[in-house]
Structure formats: structure tokens, C-alpha cells
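Lab notebook, bench 4. We co-purified these components, and the gel suggests they stay together. Before we commit to crystallization screens, I want a quick structural picture of the whole thing.
Request: model the full complex, all chains together.
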Amino acid sequence: MNINLTLIGQSIAFAIFVWFCVKYVWPPITAAMEARQKKIADGLSAADRASLDLELAQEKAAQQMQQAKEEAAVLIDQANKRAAQIVEASKDDARKEGEKLIEQARAEIQQERVQARDALRTEVALLAIAGAEKILETSVDAKAHSEMLDKLAAQL
Amino acid sequence: MADTPVEYIKHHLQNLTYGKLEAGYERFDGSVMSESGWTFARTAQEAADMGFMAIHVDTLGWSIAMGVLFLGLFRFVAKRVTTGVPGGLQNLVEVTVEFIENLVKDGFHARNPLIAPLALTIFVWILLMNVLKLIPVDYIPTIAHAMGLEYFKIVPTTDPNATFGMSIGVFLLIIFYSLKVKGVTGFAKELGMQPFNHWALIPVNLVLEILVLIVKPISLALRLFGNMYAGEVVFILIALLPLWAQWTLNVPWAIFHILVIPLQAFIFTMLTIVYLAAAHEDH
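Here is the predicted assembly.
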């Protein structure tokens, strides 16, 4: 318990240890700790940003989905309308075509009837002439009596 | 070694002293020093008679060993420090460094790159020196005795030379920074014009303030020394009990010291920070 040179020795040792700690121990350790802190802070903020980005992206995706749905609905609607129109138009066409065909058929029938009538008329005229010839036992000059024959044909 | 309990206790509280004995001094065995010279003290009386020109080899040796252990360990980590995931040892070191950093941040508001490493050195060094106390009191002295050394006290903080050695270092820093921050006139004003701000009371102020200033290192050193010394005495007293009964007191006392050891290191560190913070405060 005597106070002696140990006191001074201890003070010197203390000074040397403190100097060493200030110079070689403290700076690298605290620097590393600060660097790590910064790294962690950066990482956390990056994670925050990423989650925000994700949220935005999800929102955007949902919006686009909605928009796509709406567009599809419009397209389907248009297609349906168009299909209905086409069906309607083709029905129309078919009807018109049918009517036209019927008309043509009618005209043909009429024509054939007229032709048949004409032919019949001519035939009847010839028959009449033949009959007359039989009756008169003479031939009838077709030329001389053509006027009369035409009149007759017209009356038939 | 000692025979009676009193001798046993005295023996365990005596440092291994290497000092200078004057010519004509009569040694413990009756021989007389023919000329003055440096030698190991063989009795407490001899150690006391060496006066100031002596060294406590055990105190200095163990404190330096602990300081080297501390710096070696921390330097080892500092060299291999990584900013990635730290390993076990680096974690331990970083926890300590962060603990000290927070203490300094809370208690010390000026900018001084010396304070935090100083506090770290004080804390870890004192902690390591105190921890030596948990080694049973007879182990090392017995080994030392076998090696021919009469005395051996391994806990440096139970030697007032060690604690005063540190507190004087702190005291010099207090004076240095007081002068540096406040200037000579500022420091003189602080000593002379407080707490009574009147010219007639300058002598009273001076006495008070200088007393306050000087009490700082003394309280630092004596608090640590007193706690450790008292604890050591109790350990030695317990060691006097019969072998079968020792553990009933030794174990609780040692467990209690697991608290006391870091607490005393912490108090010394904290007060150093507080004193130096006060030295940096400009009124």
C-alpha cells in the first residue's frame, strides 16, 4: 500500500494504451460499424421503395386488366351487332334473290304461254285452212288469203 | 508463507516490490547492505522502507498484461473488421464499442475524438484488471512462491498506485482541456468567480473550486481502489475458513463481484466522461 514509482509507471502505461486505442483500435472498428449502418439503412430504404413500386405496379396491372376487359366487352358487343347485321343483310339478300327468281320464273312462264298461244294460233289457223281446204276441196292460196287468215288468227 | 491469520492477510495484501535500499540498511535476515542497490523486498517493512523509489512488479506486470490483452484483442478484430455479418469476436468488440459510444454521445456534447477511445480503454482495461479478482486468492501467490517470489498480488486495482496512476492521467486531461477550451483566463475565471460571482469572494471561490477539482481524481481512484481492496480482503478472510465451509461464502461473494467488477469499471468510465465534459463546457 505504499505509493511509489508504480504510480508513474501506471500513468505511462495508461497514456500509451490510450494513444494506441485512439490511433489503431477505435477508428477502424467505428468506421466499419458506420459503414454497416449505412448499408442497412440503404437496404431498408431500397426495400421500402421496392414495396412501393410493387404496389404501384399492382395497381397499374389492375387498371390495365380493367381496361382490357372493357375493351373486350366493347369488341364483343360490336361483333355481335355486326353479326346480327350480316345475318339480317343476308336474309334480305336471300329474300330479294328469291323474289327475283320467282319473278324470272313468272316471266318465263308468261313468255312460254305467249309462245304456246302463238304456236297454237298458227296451228289452229293451219288446221282451219286444212279444214277449209277439205271442205272446199281446193287449196287456198295462202298468199291471197293471208289477210283473212291473220284476222282469224287474231280472233282465236 | 504466513502462519497466523493476521500474517496470512498481510501477506496477501503485500505487493511484490522491487526497489532501492540504501547502503547500511539492515535486511530481514540481519545482513547489512554494503552499498545502495535495487532488490526485491522480502518483508513488508523492507517494502515500506524503500519509499518512493520502488516498483510494484506484480501490479505493473498484470496491468500491462491486461492492457496488452485488451489492445491485442481489439486490434486483432480491428484488422479483420468486416462491414458484412460480424463473427462472434467482432460482435463482442462492437457491442463494447457501441456501448461506450452511446455513453459518450449521451454525456459528452463537445467534439473530441479522444474521449470515446479513452473511455473504451478505461472501461475494458479496468474490467480486465478487476476480473483477475475472481481467480482464487491463493492460486497465483502459491505459484509465485514456488518460483521464489515472496509476495504476489495479481489484482492491480487493489493497489492505489494503479488506480491513482489512471486517475492522475484523467486529471491531467481535465486540466489540459479546461485550459485549451476556456483559455487561461477562462479557466481562472471559472475557478475564481464561481459559485459566488463577486470579486470579494474570489479567495473563497478559489478554495472551493480547487478543492472540487482535486477531489475529482482522488474520488475516482479511491472509489475503485476501495471497492476492489475491500472485496479482496473479504475474499482473503473467506479463504481463512475451513476448506469445507469456504464455498458457502465464497460463491455468493464471487457472484456479487460479477456485478461489482463491471460496475466499478463503468463508474470510473462514466465519471471520466462527465469530468471531461465539464472541462469542455464554456460558461
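The radius of gyration of chain A is 61 Å. Worth comparing against the SEC data before the next meeting. The CA atoms of residues 78 and 84 of chain A lie 10 Å apart.
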